[in-house]
Each structure stands twice: as structure tokens, then as C-alpha cells.
Amino acid sequence: MNSILKLVAQRIALSLMLLLMISVLIFAGTMILPGDVAQSILGQSATPEALANLRADLGLNDPPVTRYFQWLFGALQGDLGNALTSGQDITSAISTRLSNTLFLAFWAALIAVPLAIFLGLLAVRYKDRWPDKLISGVTLASISIPEFLIGYVLMYLIAVKLRWFPSVAMINDGMNLWQKLNSIALPVAVLTLVVLAHMMRMTRAAILNVMQSAYIETAELKGLSTFKVIWRHAFPNSIAPIVNVVMLNLAYLVVGVVVIEVVFVYPGMGQYLVDHVSKRDVPVVQACGLIFAAVYIGLNMVADIVSILSNPRLRHPK
Amino acid sequence: MKNIPISALVGLFFTGLYFLAAIFAPLLAPYGMAEVVGDVWEPSSAEFLLGTDNIGRDLLSRIIYGGRTTIFIATVATILSFTTGSVLGIFAAVAGGWVDQVLSRFVDLLMSIPTLIFALVVLSVTPVTVPMLILVMGLLDSTRVFRLARAVAVDIEVMDFVEAARLRGERTAWIIFREILPNALSPLVAEMGLRFIFMVLFVSTLSFLGLGVQPPEADWGGIVKENKDGIVYGIPAALIPAFAIATLAISVNLVADWVLNRTTSLKGGRG
Amino acid sequence: MSEPILKVRNLKIGATVYPPGEKPHDIEIVHGVSFDLERGKVLGLIGESGAGKSTIGLASMAYGRGGVEITGGEVWVNGRDILQSQMHDIRKLRGGEVTYVSQSAAASFNPARTIMEQVIEAAVEQGKFSRRDAEARARILFDKLGLPDPENIGRRYPHQVSGGQLQRCMTALALCPEPDLVVFDEPTTALDVTTQIDVLMAIKEAIRDTGVAALYITHDLAVVAQVSDDIMVLRHGETVEYGSVNQIINEPQEEYTQALVSVRSIDHEEKAPTEEPVLSVRNISARYKGTKFDVLHSVNVDLYPGQTLAVVGESGSGKSTLARVITGLLPPREGEISFAGRTLSADFNTRTREDLRELQMIYQMADVAMNPRQTVATIIGRPLEFYFGLRGAKKRQRIIELLDEIELGEGFMDRYPAELSGGQKQRVCIARALAAKPKVIICDEVTSALDPLVADGILKLLLNLQKIEDVAYLFITHDLATVRAISDNIAVMYKGKVQRYGAKSQVLSPPFDDYTDLLLSSVPEMKIGWLEEVIAHRKMESAGN
Questions:
Q1: Which CATH number is A90-315 given?
Q2: According to a count of CB atoms within 10 Å of the terminal CB, is the N or C end of chain B lower?
Q3: Which of A26, A35, A149 sits opposite B246 (nearest CB)?
């Protein structure tokens, strides 16, 4: 068991290190590239004195390394600084928006993951027959369609023409769960569609890969029924690849969320980020970038840890 | 060339159509790109085949010009991504040792954040111009090409015929261009189609978010953004450029799929 | 005479092929094969790769691997034609009446479940035994098959036991449900020769004790002669000869069978060491990067001009590592190599072009030793161009000469490797090495991936070329028959050390050290009853000790 713990610990350490490097990259990316924050806040007509004052206020005169560590330690303590444009405290602004985004992503995942695995299994069961072909056709189309098209088509048909759900996904604390769900129904549907095809195809590939192993042939030559072959021999070896597929797609969902929030004017992290990129509000962008990166790295880490834990060679060392 | 499947033919036809429309845009477009010629969101008519947009410009003309911008940016970014990624990837595989380590770890790092998020972070401080967009998109995407090229090259590099060439005393250039590249080409070319689709979607998404091509310049993602408010009033103008993006991407995909199937089944190909 | 357990009549098997650039189409791979197998008897199916022997074996379970389909004929098991049976009955047959042992036990065991679960699964599932009885039976089988700790080995996972042990577990898996027929598909091919003999004996005894009938599929006639009652020789999906083991081994009728029986009997007169050695390996110790243990320990060997030094050993003996050290791919930790009177630089990158040219290499897998995108002319022509600056007509002339030397001829110039057979590929690799006019060629298991007859042809060619070109071979192999056929000197390697070294006649005659004795006595001989003799001999010796 020790070797497993060691591998898991290593994997966690690697993720933390990656995150640290990413924070350097995000910080450096917003600092070294041309463009002066003070200038962009005050505009071209600003007086030199006003610019100098603002630079001093923002700590822009400190060396970059100092500023990086100040920013990093602040972030570690939950202080992400203030937004340049509104002067608002970023941490509190983000916390409601992050929970909104997670709420949206959670429901999308809750629907998409089981559905995708089920459909993936279906594709394996009916390999090269029409359900399989339909699924690969849908996948081909779906990786070619921009997320916002799916969003607007659904909005146009379901919200505007049929009037089943609202076209704009407003939520606030005053709403009960049912109202909230009604409000986010369309964005959840779009997100589900966005990740579904990918997840289905990858699940199919992962299971087919296992089904082609020699031990599946052995099981078939024992005269086991198809169900027993899958349940006893294919399934235990498919867990890791399937979890991997799910995690990869959840990570993909995190990106999809940015566009979908803009489409449905949903008050989440994605919209917050996009708004402040166009306003060139660097501290907000840094904070959002860091959080998105952390979620992404975290999901990848979970996938790797699951495959470490489910590897029989590691679970039962010699 | 007799055995081209129907799907690939359809793909080839539409891809060709879009590219031709992009090249000959000024000849094809009935009106100027930024010319206000009618009322806001006029429905389609003989005068304006696809109607007009949110400030009364001819939508068809804008889509034709927009396609030109989108396809141009995506093509150049694909070429940039491709050359950078494959040259560095194969170089890393052949050089091995610390060169490979440094390059690979750096790419791992870049790939540990979603491309879109990274692009947004960078675009928040850089001027949003077409060359800058191409540079950011091309370089960020080259990480994917790097991984593929490196993986393919590493697979080939461990083969005995490469070892035999090294033991013969061949130079690195010979090994890269005569032994590895001919064998790595087909998976890379097939990938090129996918990278192009990704670029089309990427630039459209950025423009849709308002962080890509800036008005009055037209591109498909930007046209969606300009007309999106119409949707709630039941005006589907925003859907048309979005459909253009989807059909272009699907067409290229159909072609790429066929190329991939064909090259992997080639004799001596890497299947 | 009782009703045969397995009766195959005019069996035809087809497969769908997907040739590049053409429409997929069906071809026939087995063309009407018939045989009978009685209770308690063993039928050996022998043939080269592509003879259809595994396909026929699986057909006796109504199973087609990949796109393979049984297209005609009858397969009667226990008096009913299973090709006409319903899936439900076929499931009863598989794992109950007929079971299967594959070549690679390592891949055929599910890595996520214990050995015991998998060994008893069929027996329990088919309702032959209760779980408890099946487990008891499995433990008896483990014991009978000579597995260590038969009580507990079932609790282990497949990766926790060695390859030879897992192969025996697979045999236990097949025997556990008390089947009427077991299909053994190359069960010892992947094993080292000293392991093979034990597994072979275990299988033979298990067959005898349980009275089960068996189809024994292999490419090695010497192996099948030890376990079979009858033998069927197959080629390209057709029966060449079918008879008792005695008739096939001692009085083969068909030319092809005769060739198979007399394979490995190349006569090669040993040459005495003449002048100075062309290649001297002195005190070489080596380890792989990042490891802490040497895989070669002070190795000393000499190779004389125009002669062959065979380096023989099992997997893990360090023989291939020695080749990597000599070629400069793995610089040694200690020791030096002298070549044609000069000291070779440890790393091939710093060797002179002359050194590189005079020391050539031929690989085991000819498929990956040639660039699939280059024609034969390019492959052979490159060393001519690179070392001798030959171009145009002169180069072409020399390529044709080389193609003639390897018995292929001018017609092969524009072919790609994918258009060549396994033996032809290896010949082109030989020509590429010869093109450099080397003093020494390192041959790394060059015949192991080839069918016996093809391998024989390659060995004869190499011997012939040695006479013409006066080139020395460092011949790395695990196969003692090959060693006998080709070597002048032999180095036996074991765990990274040279265990025994000297002239062929000396190394191969007693007194032996223990390992060499074990190794030599483990090589199957084309002789009925050889297996029992060896085992009896070994038992006597250990009793004597």
C-alpha cells in the first residue's frame, strides 16, 4: 500500500507545483506584455500626475517579484485584491459567482455523465450498427458546432418560439431550488449537449479498448454470457479509463461554461471574467484565471489518482 | 481518386465553396462590408437575400466578408501552430535529454490551463489586433501539435531503422527529414484539418465574446455577437453566421476524417 | 473403437481482409481440413505462421477470432455438430466440454481478479462443481502442475507470479472444469527453453492423469513430438500430412514434412582460431542509465576474423546488452573494446566513420529495421552512397550485385518492405549490412522471428556469405540449435556473466557446469520420448546428489 500512497502524494504535489507555476505564468503574462494598467484605466487623456499617483496606489512601482509574492500570499489568504474598475472586493464578488457557476456545472454534469456512459455502452453493445453510427455522426457534428450556436438555437426554439423556459438565466438568492432549476434549464441543456458527444465517444473507445483484451476472449471461451463477461471482466478494468473520460469532460465543461454564461447572461464566473477582460481589469482576470486553472488542474489530478488507485498492479504489489 | 466516399465529397465541395467565397469576397458581395443600406433587422427579401443586421447593413455581404476574415485568421493561425508545434515536437523527440525535458514540461504547463482561459488572460493586457490574435491562437494551439508530433516521432525514433541510421553515422538532419518525417507526415496532416476547425471555432468564440476581431471589421463570431439581441425578439439573424461556422467546420471534418482513414490504411503506414 | 470426441469434416474458414486501396473482401484461410480425435489422445497441429492452425483450434469451440468466420464443413464434439448449435448450447460447450490455453497467459488473465477466481470460474459457471469443490480441485491441479505453494497461490493476482507459473495456471484453468477436450495454442512458445521443459512435462502429465483429449498447436515439431499421439502438418490452410507421431517423425512422406523434420541440421565445421582477434571485449561491465545494478559483469570474449562467435543465453542473460555495448549505444561502465587493432570509442557518436562502417548490425525484427517509406534500392543504396560515395549507374550495379548475393535479384529493387515476406525482409537487412563491406556483423536474434524453414535458409545464406566476404559474425541467440549450426566459438551467458566460453566442440561437450547442462539438455530434440529421458535423467541426478 505504501507505494500507492507515495504515488498519490507525488501526484498531489505535482498538481500543487503546476498550480504555482501557473500562478507565475498568469502573473507574468499580465505584467510583462505591453499595456499599462494605469493608462488603460485612466485612458489616453490622463495627466502624467494622475497616472503616477495611480501607479503608486496600485503598487505598480514595486519590482514585479515583490508584487507577485504580495499577490500570491494575498490569494492564499483569500484576498484577491480589489477590482480596478469598480473598486469592489474581488473575493466577495467571485464567491457568489463561483457558487452560481458550480451550481450550473453540477446539474449539467449530473445529467451528462450518466447519460453519456449509458449511451457509450449502447454504442459498444450495438457496435457498427445504427445506434453506434448515429452516435459517431452526432459526435462529428457536435465537435464542429460552436457552443453559442447550440445556445442560441435552443433559446430561439424553446424560449422564444415555444416559451417553455426563460431565455435569460437569472438567478438570485431569493429563489427556491425549483425556480432556480427552471431558470437554468436551458443553459444546463446546452452544456449537456456540448459535453455529451465527446464523453460518449470517449467512453465507447475506452470500453472497446478493454473489450479487445485477450482476457475478454478467455472469458468468452469459458462460455460466460455477454452480461457476465462485461460485468466481471470488462467493467473492473474500465473504471479508470471511464473516470478519466468523465474528468476530462468536466474540465472541458469548465471552459464551455464561459461561453454559455455569456449567451444566457448568467451571473457566473465566466461572464465575470469576460466582462473584465474587455475592461482590462487585470486583478479580476488574474483571479478568475487562477480559479479556472485550479479547477482544471484539480479535475485532472482526480482522474490520475483514480487510475492509480484502481490499478491492480499497484493495489496488490508483488 | 475514384474511391472518395460521398461524405468526403460533400465536405470537399463545401470547404472549396467557402474558401472560394472568401477569396473572391469583393466580387461576390452585393453591398459593401460596413455599408448601411436598409432598416434594422429587415427580413430577407430580393434586395437583401438574408435580410439586414442590427444597424441595417446587408447580412449576406457581411457574412461573405466575415467568412474571409474568419478563414484567413484560422488558416494563418493553423499554419503558425503547425510549423511551430511539429518542428519543436520532432526536434524534442530526436534531441532527447534535457532539451526534450524542458520543452515537454513547458508544454505540459501551458496545457494545464484551458486554452480559452489562457487566451482571455493574455488578451486582457495585449492590444486586440488581428496579428496579435493569430499569434496568441497559433502559439497556444501549437502545444497540442507539439504533443502529437513528439509522440509520433518518439514512436518512430525507437524503431530499429532509426537506430540503424544513427549507427551508420547519419547526421541529425538526415534522421529527421529522411527517416522520421516521411513516416510522421500522414498522422500530422490528418491532424491539420482538426486544428483548422479548432481555430475557426476559437476565433469565432473570441469574437463572440467581444475579444476577437473588433468592429467595424466583420467576422462570423462578431456578427453573431452584433445580432444576438435579436434572438429574444424572434429574429434569427444571429443564427445564420453561426450556421456558417458549423457547416464549414463539419465540412472540413468530413475531409479530415477521410484523409485520416486513407492514410492509416496505406501500405507501410502507421495504422 | 469408440466415437471420437472431436470429429472435423471438410472444415472451411474464411476471413474478411481490408487491403489498402481496395474494397474489403472475403478470402478463405482454411480449405477443407478433416481429422478425428479420440478420447484421451493428443493431436498435434503443426505449421508455420499463416498455416491456419490456431484458427482450426478455435473452430473446435465454434469461435472465430477477429473477422474470422467458419464458412463450411462440420465440427462434431461429443456426437453433435456444434456449427449447427444454438448460442446457448455453444456457451455450455465452451468452458465445459472444450477449454482453451493460449500462448500468452499474461494477457489472458484478467489483471483485476485473483488467479483462483478465474481458474474456477468456468467450472462453477457451467455447474460442473460447487465453488468449494472447484477450489479444492484447482489446488490439486496447482500441485500437479508443480506450482509453488499450491494452497495459496490462487489468492495472488496474475502479475504477482512469473510467466512460466502463469502458463501453468492457465493449464489449471483449462483442466479445472474436467473438460473432454483442451485446445493448447502454442502454450510454451513465449517461455525460455529451461522453463519450457518443465511446463511441457507438467502439461503432459496433466493430460495423462486426467485422461482428457487435447489439440496441441505449435510451430515446433520437436515439441509436438513429445506430447502427441498423432500429428497433422498444415500449410496455407491445407493438410500436408496426417499420421501417427512415429510415422511423421521417422518416416515423413511429404517433402515439406521431411524439410520440417530435418530442419536445424545444418552441418558447419568449426574453424580454429587463426590470427589476432578482430574484436576483443575486455572486462566489460555495464548498467542502464539510472539503475544501480550492473547487467554485465566483467565480460571477456574474442571474435576472430571470418569466424562466428555465438553468444547464447535466455532472456535477462545480458546478451543483447552486450550487443548494445559493442555497437556503442550503451557506453560501458568499465572495460574496453578493441576492434581491428584499435581501441573503439565507448560512444558510437564519437567513433570514426571507418569504425562505424566496419561494424554493422542486423536486427531481430526486420519489419522495423527498415524504413517503410523507402524502397529496397534506397535501403541498400544508402550505405553505398554514404560510405563509398557511389552514385548513379555504379551504385545501381552494386545494388544488383548485392541483391544477387542474397538470392533475391534485380526485380526487388523498387519494392517497399511491406511487399516482402519475413525472410525476404531479413535478406534485405543482410544486404544493407554487407553493403558497408564490414569486418564484423552483429546479428541480434536474426532468425528468432522467422519460421523454422525460413530461418534455416537465412542461416545457410549467412554461412555462405561468410565464405565469400570473409566477414565475422557476433551471433546473439537463445536457440542452441542455431548455435550448433553456425558458430565456431560459443559464449554461454547467464545473469550478465559469461558462464562458459571456448571453441564450439569444447563448449558443447562434457564436463558441463550446471547451467550449461540445464540449458543444453532443455533443448527439445526431434526424437520421440526425449522429454521422458531428460526428466528421468534429471531425477536420477538429483537423487544422486
A1: 1.10.3720.10
A2: N
A3: A149
